[in-house]
Amino acid sequence: MTIAFTFILIGLAAVIYPLRYNRFYLLNAALVIGLSYFTENYVFKINPHHFFSVKTLLLFLVFHLVCINITTFIAYGVDKHAAVRKQWRIPENDLHTLEFLGGWIGAFIGQKFFHHKTAKKSFQRMYLLMILLEFSAVWFLVYYLGINRYF
User: Fold this and answer.
1) Is this structure's pTM higher than 0.85?
2) What gap in Å lies between CA 142 and CA 128, rounded to an integer?
3) Staple partner for 103: which of 22, 51, 68, 79, CB 3.0–4.6 Å?
């Protein structure tokens, strides 16, 4: 399971060019891989022959969504801290990439908790666009690629 998750995360970084330089995506990947390693070795005994089964992919989605929302929340906190101290900021494209990858709930909570990026209209429009694009991508995967037959 850990090997499968590592391949998926590295594959995403290979296909989606901005992920290669997004420090928070690397944090997310480390969290997902660490969580899967812990789960595989200490919680469940996973059969190593089920390398890319549907259950493994569903477990990856759960781990990924939990970790990406935590990571996005942390990214908003780091960016707010840097803004207050007039230091180097996280590029908005990195924040939007994290939102698109499923971290829009963490982004929403981070915006409200840190009072960050809530007044900037262009950022909020792009935030809503990322949510719309993510739901469109999920809808495409479920209906056009036939993933719904596994549920």
Assistant:
1) no
2) 21
3) 68
